[in-house]
Amino acid sequence: MDPLLLARLQFATTTSIHFLFVVVTLGLVTLLVGLQTAGHLTGKPVYERLTRFWGQLYVINYVLGIATGIVMEFQFGLNWSGLSRYVGNVFGAPLAIETLVAFFLESTFLGMWIFGWHRLRRGVHLALLWGVALTAYASAFWIMVANAWLQNPVGYEVRDGVAHLTDFGALLTNPTFGMAFGHVVSAGLVTGGLLMAAVSAWHLLRRTPDFALFRTSLRIGLVTAALAVTALQGFGFAQFGPVGQVQPTKFGGGPARDATVADWTARFGPGDWDPPVLSSVGLGFMILIGFALGCVWLLLPLLWRDWIIRLRFPLWLVLLGLPLPFVAVLLGWIAREVGRQPWVAYGLLPTAQAVSPVSPGLMLTSLIGFSLLLGTLAVTNWTLMARHAARGALDPALGRPPAPDTDPDHQPVFA
C-alpha cells in the first residue's frame, strides 16, 4: 500500500471529524453570548434557563472537541515530518499562537465560567463568557491564517533548503485568508443556529411543557441561521476572485493555469499538476446545499404565528434539515484541501515530499487507530449531546444553585 495515500486518508479523516466539533463550538458560543447578555440586560429568567441548557451542550462538545484536536496534532510529527522540517518555521508560528489561545486562554475562561455560576458577580460571569467567545474566534483566526499560507505561501524566503518567515504582516493580508475566515465563521453560525432550531423543534413536536421556552430558542436559532446563511453564500462566492488568481489550477484555467503548470514542470519535472476531480465534485454539491440552506428564510413565519408551529410540518423541515450544514462543511473542506493537491504548500512543497518515511504497515496501523479513536469521540459527543438535549431545560446541571445547608449543627471547617 502507498504510505502517501494512507497518510492523506488519515489526515482527511481526523481533520474532518475535528472540523465538525469546531463549527458547533463557534456557533453555540456566539448564541450563548447573546443569551446570557440578553439575560443580564433584561433580567428575564428565560434567558438564564436557555443559557444553562445550551451551555451544557456547548461544554460537552468543547471538551470532546479538544480531545480530537490533540489527537489530530500528533499527525504533523508522525506522518508529515517533511512539512514540519521544510515550512515549520512559517507554518508553525500561527499554530503556536492558536495553541496558546485555545488551550490556555479559552480553556481557562471556560473553566471559570462553568464553576463561576452563583459565585461571581453577574457582570464578571458574563465577561468570562465573552472571553470564551473571543478566544474561540481568535483560535479559528490563527488556524485559518496557517491554512491560508498553505493555500498561498507568502512572506517567506528559502534559505539552506528551509522556508523562513520574513514578513508576518503578509500572513494576515494573504488573499486566501479573509474571505475564507468569514466563510468558516458564517458556517459555524449557520450550524449553531440550525442545531438550536432543530433541538427546539424536536421538543415542540413532543409537546413538552416548556413550549414558550423552546419557541423562543426556535426563533433565535432560525434568525441566526437565516442571517448567517446570507453571509455564508457571500463569503463563499467571493473566494472565487482571489483564489482564482493565486491558485489557477484549483478553480481557474486558461493561460494562467498553463503558465503555472509550465513553471512547475520546469522546477519540479513533469507531472500531473491538476487537482483530483473530487475537489470539483465537493464544490458543486456544497454550492447546492448552500442554496438549499438559503430556504431557511422561508421558515421565518414561525417567528410570528404559534398556529404555524402547531402544524408540525415546518418543525419537521427544521429537524430534517439539521444534517445539511454538517455535510456542507465537509464538502467545503474537500473543495479547499483536495483542490490544493498535489501540493501541501501550493507551488512550494509537493505532498509526496512532505510525508514521513514511514512503512506502509505502520501508517495503516495509525490510520486505523486514529480513525477508531476520533470516531469513538464523535459518537460519544453526539450521544451525550442528544441525551442531554432530550432531557429538556427543566433543571440542567450546569449553573444549578448550590443546595442549602439544612444541618443546624454544621460548622464550617475554617470557622
TrEMBL record:
Disordered: where is this region?
Answer: 396-415
The signal peptide annotation in the UniProt record is: none
Topology in the lipid bilayer: Multi-pass membrane protein
GO CC annotation terms, alphabetical: cytochrome complex; plasma membrane
The UniProt keyword set, sorted, is: Cell membrane, Electron transport, Heme, Iron, Membrane, Metal-binding, Transmembrane, Transmembrane helix, Transport
Tell me where on the tree of life, at the top rank, the source sits: Bacteria
Question: Where do transmembrane segments lie in this chain?
Answer: 20-41, 53-71, 91-115, 127-150, 180-205, 217-238, 277-303, 315-335, 362-384
Q: Which Pfam families match?
A: Cyt_bd_oxida_I
The UniProt entry's GO biological process terms, in alphabetical order, are:
aerobic electron transport chain
MF-aspect GO terms: electron transfer activity; heme binding; metal ion binding; oxidoreductase activity, acting on diphenols and related substances as donors, oxygen as acceptor
Q: Where in the cell is it found?
A: Cell membrane
Q: Which family does it belong to?
A: Belongs to the cytochrome ubiquinol oxidase subunit 1 family.
User: What PANTHER family does the database record attribute to this sequence?
Assistant: CYTOCHROME BD UBIQUINOL OXIDASE SUBUNIT 1, CYTOCHROME D UBIQUINOL OXIDASE
What protein name does the entry list? Cytochrome d ubiquinol oxidase subunit I
The source organism is Micromonospora sediminicola
